[in-house]
Design a protein that fits this description.
Blueprint lengths: L1 H21 L8 H17 L3 E7 L5 E7 L9 E7 L8 H4 L3 E3 L2 E3 L3 H16 L11 E6 L10 H9 L1 E6 L16 E10 L3 E2 L10 H13 L9 E9 L5 E2 L2 E10 L2 H12 L9 E10 L6 H17 L15 H6 L4 E2 L6 E2 L7 E3 L3 H14 L2
Parallel strand pairs: 3-6, 3-7, 7-14
Antiparallel strand pairs: 1-2, 2-6, 4-5, 5-16, 8-12, 8-13, 9-11, 10-12, 15-16
């Protein structure tokens, strides 16, 4: 009974600590909130005796990059890179209609599952291992401000730390329905396609116009037809805008397109097909900008061996760790895996509802996930 009560008390304590993080709203487009979140995490790290380096990055130095380590002075050995992100997808004010609360063992709130839960647990575990020598390898914990929008400012720093590491562990949320980890993610890319036509009066001189929207309809069908579920390729036109008023043949239309690829050969094929798009109608032009933002995270023998080590850490924490199938969402693990660094993702909190108003983590699972991180950081060599 005592152990049970102790576990319940610890779960409530962790939920209370996580609630403070959740109530600090930090959407990607709100640097002020991300800075507050970085300061909150930095204070927790300093209070635990960890070394903290909080700097500014981005085109205008508007974003915080938080690096926390337990390295002893002068210890330059390759170690373990832990990655997390400070930003969420939820706009400021989400808490008003979706307050942080506990219902039926679920702690709800924006960013609770993706990924403040995992970030907080990993940082707390590292804080308990702050003294040099408490871990067999030095730990560098990098918390970035822009993962949800592509990590454009953070990527050089992530890759620099990864090149000096033996392993990368990412505190993104565990997969729903079992808390599985992730060793394979699709690569992610974006396309900005703009069609330029010729305006005319839709009633008096319709025949002189060249509709950009009509042309875009053809291009959208071409793009969406590149989806191949059997090969794991998806192309999705996410937003579209065009035209001016209803009585004018539209001279402009543009779309933003998301695409996902399972490996680089598929990616190169899709990129080539997109860049080869050509007009269907006369007197119209296309402008296309294609970017493969995150390379695929491909499962390797090295990452498989790392998972086997982590399974022992999970077993000692009271649960069985499994490897999830390839997931369509990208993360910063895509960057580190592409460099050949053994990388395992999805090591964060258990829950569900990422990027929705029903996002939550399981309160009762918080203690075992904290112990999992303790075991990993203390024993991995």
């Amino acid at each position: 009974m005592t152990n049970s009560l102790s576990a319940i008390a610890l779960a409530q304590q962790l939920a209370d600590e996580l609630s403070v993080w959740i109530q600090c709203e930090s959407p990607s487009n709100f640097p002020e909130g991300i800075h507050r979140m970085a300061e909150l995490a930095a204070k927790q790290a300093r209070d635990s005796g960890l070394t903290v380096n909080l700097t500014r990055i981005g085109k205008n130095n508007e974003l915080p990059l938080l690096v926390v380590t337990n390295r002893a002075t002068g210890d330059a050995r390759p170690g373990i890179l832990v990655l997390a992100h400070l930003d969420t997808v939820h706009p400021v004010g989400t808490l008003k209609d979706n307050p942080c609360r506990i219902e039926d063992d679920k702690l709800y709130g924006p960013g609770s599952y993706d990924m403040k839960g995992g970030a907080m647990l990993a940082l707390k575990a590292l804080g308990e291992l702050s003294k040099p020598g408490a871990t067999k390898l030095p730990i560098d914990f990098v918390m970035v401000p822009d993962e949800e929008v592509g990590s454009h400012a953070s990527r050089p720093y992530i890759e620099d730390f990864a090149k000096r590491s033996i392993y990368t562990l990412v505190a993104e949320p565990a997969r729903p329905n079992g808390g599985k980890c992730v060793t394979a993610r699709k690569g992610t890319g974006m396309v900005h396609l703009c069609v330029k036509g010729r305006p005319s009066h839709a009633g008096l001189q319709h025949e002189k116009g060249r509709s950009a929207i009509r042309e875009m309809a053809h291009q959208i069908l071409k793009l969406e037809a590149m989806t191949d579920y059997d090969r794991g390729i998806t192309v999705s036109v996410g937003t579209i805008s065009g035209g001016t008023v209803t009585n004018t043949v539209p001279a402009h239309c543009e779309v933003m397109v998301d695409f996902r690829i399972p490996d680089m050969p598929a990616g190169e094929e899709v990129l080539a097909r997109m860049q080869a798009l050509s007009p269907v109608g006369p007197d119209v032009s296309l402008e296309i900008d294609v970017e493969l933002n995150r390379p695929p995270m491909v499962k390797t023998p090295e990452s498989t061996r790392l998972v086997e080590k982590l399974k022992g850490c999970a077993s000692q924490a009271g649960f069985q760790l499994e490897d999830a199938p390839m997931t369509g969402g990208g993360s910063d693990a895509n960057f580190t895996a592409a460099l050949g660094i053994p990388s395992v993702d999805g090591l964060g909190a258990e829950g569900d509802g990422a990027h929705t108003l029903n996002e939550y983590v399981f309160v009762s699972a918080l203690p075992r996930r904290l112990q999992f991180w303790r075991n990993i950081l203390a024993t991995l060599e």
